[in-house]
Amino acid sequence: MAGPPTPADSPLTLDDVMASPRHRALMTAAVSVGEQAPDFELPLLDPATHAPSGATIRLSSFAGERPVALVFGSYT
Q1: Residue 36: left if φ>0, alpha if ψ -120 to 50, beta else—which one?
Q2: What is the pLDDT of residue 55?
Q3: End-to-end CA distance of the chain
Q4: Which of 8, 15, 24, 41 has the fewest CB atoms in 10 Å of its CB?
Q5: Where are the domains of the chain?
Q6: In sequence order, what are the beta bridge partners of 43?
Q7: Is the dihedral of CA 24, 27, 30, 31 positive or negative?
Q8: Distances (CA, A) of 31 to 34, 43, 44
Q9: What's residue 2's pLDDT?
């Protein structure tokens, strides 16, 4: 897979990143289908400003109430 050209001032190339053990770990699922996801906490955003509201929410707060779909990506 060819990526964009590496900027001249970059200390890394795409090949360096793709070969990195940390990158490989990110590409490997940490849980299997049916396993419980690790718990985590995220800041709640103000719906009007999209700025952090100061409150947080934990994934575990939804346990036993309803399914949760986590979507990571860009919508741009």
Answers
A1: beta
A2: 93
A3: 22
A4: 8
A5: 39-71
A6: 56
A7: negative
A8: 8, 23, 25
A9: 62
